[in-house]
Design a protein that fits this description.
transferase; 348 residues; alpha/beta; four-stranded parallel beta sheet
């Protein structure tokens, strides 16, 4: 077809409406996008988010496995806030674990010069057992702003004072803690009632054996909750009676006037397997009667120790500060402790 001026105008007259529709479509698309961004996106912002940590009090709750009540700051702490970073730790485990968490915080603070604080959930557990803990609860500075340049989880990466160190739950730093072994023993001083109760146990054993003096050996036997854990993590079985009997015989050969005081989560098993034919063995633990603090105080009051595994027994032996026979469990923190402290021996 011959393109004349008339044809040209007709063709372009047909295109112009199509162009208008295209422009209108683009404009509507932009309007829809703007509407979604302004009016719909905020709906997603109102969904529950992790609580923003503005103050150390908010931070403390994130470290605990239980809910904390609002903190009451002592008057003497009202105007105190850390100038630099702090050292603290997350809560994990029971008494023995939380002793390591506390001790690791204590040792890292001593090494770095940063102020140490522990969450109230840990402080409450330890304050029921020990007197005059030197590390204050984090709630004492709950009113202070949580401002730090960075937070790291190991003292190995600490490089400047405004860095805070947050140790993970189940933290165990024996190399650092046992640099000051005597000092950490002094840190964990038992409540008077626990000391008196443990001394009664020692006196009773001495009276039953009709001796004026005795060498006391504390034994920790852990069974009920450790069977599956040992197999899952170490492919090992629980320590059998033979281990404990051999360890007791070692001390019997060394001392003529010895008494063995057993603390355990399975006193029935101990009664059946460790007392046969021996009058010098006493099972101290009573299910539902004695507390972990009482059992630990008895271990600490002894001269020497026999332990299998677990942080509870390790601390009992550390606090007793004597010769220790321990079960051979590879890659366990107790083995590292035995390498750091004198008179610790692995059997089997």
């Amino acid at each position: 077809m011959l393109l004349t001026k008339g044809n040209y105008e007709v063709l372009h007259g047909m295109k112009r409406p199509n162009q208008n529709i295209l422009v209108l479509s683009i404009f509507l698309a932009i309007c829809i996008m703007v509407f979604i961004h302004i009016f719909l996106f905020p709906l997603y912002d109102t969904m529950p988010k992790k609580k923003e940590i503005k103050f150390l009090g908010d931070f403390e709750q994130s470290l605990c496995t239980t809910n904390l009540k609002p903190a009451k700051v002592p008057l003497s702490w009202k105007h105190h806030c850390p100038k630099d970073g702090i050292v603290t730790v997350a809560q994990g485990g029971r008494l023995g674990n939380q002793m390591w968490e506390y001790a690791s915080t204590w040792a890292v603070a001593r090494r770095t010069g940063l102020e140490p604080y522990i969450p109230r959930c840990i402080y409450k557990v330890l304050d029921e057992v020990f007197d005059d803990l030197s590390i204050p609860p984090l709630s004492y500075v709950s009113h202070c702003p949580a401002k730090w340049d960075s937070v790291i989880k190991s003292p190995e990466f600490w490089s400047y004072t405004n860095q805070s160190i947050l140790l993970p739950r189940f933290a165990v730093l024996p190399d650092l803690v046992l640099t000051w072994a005597d000092d950490i023993r002094h840190e964990f001083r038992f409540k008077r009632r626990l000391i008196e109760a443990s001394q009664k146990v020692l006196v009773t054993a001495r009276q039953l054996l009709n001796r004026t003096t005795l060498v006391y050996v504390g034994i920790h036997v852990r069974r009920t909750d450790y069977r599956d854990y040992l197999w899952r993590t170490h492919r090992m079985f629980l320590a059998d009676a033979h281990f404990f009997i051999e360890a007791m015989n070692y001390f019997r050969k060394k001392f003529s006037n010895v008494a063995f005081l057993i603390v355990s989560d399975d006193p029935g098993w101990c009664q059946q397997n460790l007392l046969k034919g021996h009058s010098d063995v006493f099972v101290v633990s009573k299910g539902g009667v004695t507390s972990p603090g009482q059992d630990l105080a008895v271990m600490a009051a002894c001269n020497h120790s026999i332990i299998d595994y677990g942080t509870f027994g390790v601390w009992g032996a550390i606090l007793a500060s004597g010769e220790t026979i321990l079960y051979n469990i590879t890659r366990h923190s107790s083995i590292r402790v035995s390498e750091l402290l004198p008179n610790w021996h692995v059997m089997y």
